[in-house]
Amino acid sequence: MTRLLEQQVAIITGSGRGIGAAAARLFAQHGARVVVNDLEAEPAEQVVADIRAAGGEAIAVPGDVTAPDFPERIVRAAVETFGKLNILVNNAGYTWDGVIHKMSDEQWQAMLDVHATAPFRLIRAAAPFMRDAAKRELAEGRMPEPRCIINVSSTSGLHGNAGQANYATAKMGIVGLTKTVAKEWGPFGIRCNAVAFGFIETRLTQSKEKGETIEVHGKHVPLGIPEHLRQMATMLIPLGRPGTPEEAAGGILLLASPFAAYITGHVLEVTGGYGI
């Protein structure tokens, strides 16, 4: 198999579970050295162990992406361990649903923080090792190394979704950030794209009746979708089924790979046809 990311260094936030974990393993299979992140240490360390057992290189940097000091900490860990940074995947996030007239300010702000502010801070923290590094390479007459940013959006951001005003706003906001970074950093050879996922089988889309939660700042936020809505969503997908985390990770790899060398500012929909 051709290794598409040989010797590149990638940070993937929210990569202890679901799509992020699948992307971390897939990137490692393609030769990337991966920085794995999760809110909790245990799942991040498990993904690192899986990658190392398969012959890859990875480290775990657990932590809350919304913490003000987190972006510098994870970028520093990547550069100190592997010497550089080629790829940043802003994947971490969760949902905290509620209809507009009952949504609290806390619910609203939490989604903006994790899906828009955190990616912005991470991109800013990466600037010295991506934008500035590329600028130096160009000044020296060298071709810049491949570098790119991939932000995770959602069909909720592109089309809106009842009960997700906060999430939809943040996920559309990340599209605007993506296009702006593409314009600002394009002259340095740095691409920035987004991938908008539809119904992918993860903790966020499992049956809400399972009762699983995520603890955020001391609060237990319910995860999942009511089962009757899951069934309705499947009926609206032309391919007739939800996607797997591995299929979702394929979309991220595509945007990070040499095959996307002339693609920037784009939103790739990985939805099984939902929304067309």
TrEMBL record:
The keyword Transcription does not apply. Keywords: Oxidoreductase. Gene3D superfamilies: NAD(P)-binding Rossmann-like Domain. GO terms for biological process: fatty acid biosynthetic process. It comes from Ardenticatena maritima. It holds the Pfam family adh_short_C2. GO terms for molecular function: 3-oxoacyl-[acyl-carrier-protein] reductase (NADPH) activity; quinone binding. Its EC number is 1.1.1.100. The lineage of its organism: Bacteria, Bacillati, Chloroflexota, Ardenticatenia, Ardenticatenales. This is 3-oxoacyl-ACP reductase. It is an enzyme of class 1 (oxidoreductase). Belongs to the short-chain dehydrogenases/reductases (SDR) family. Residues 8-188 form the Ketoreductase domain.
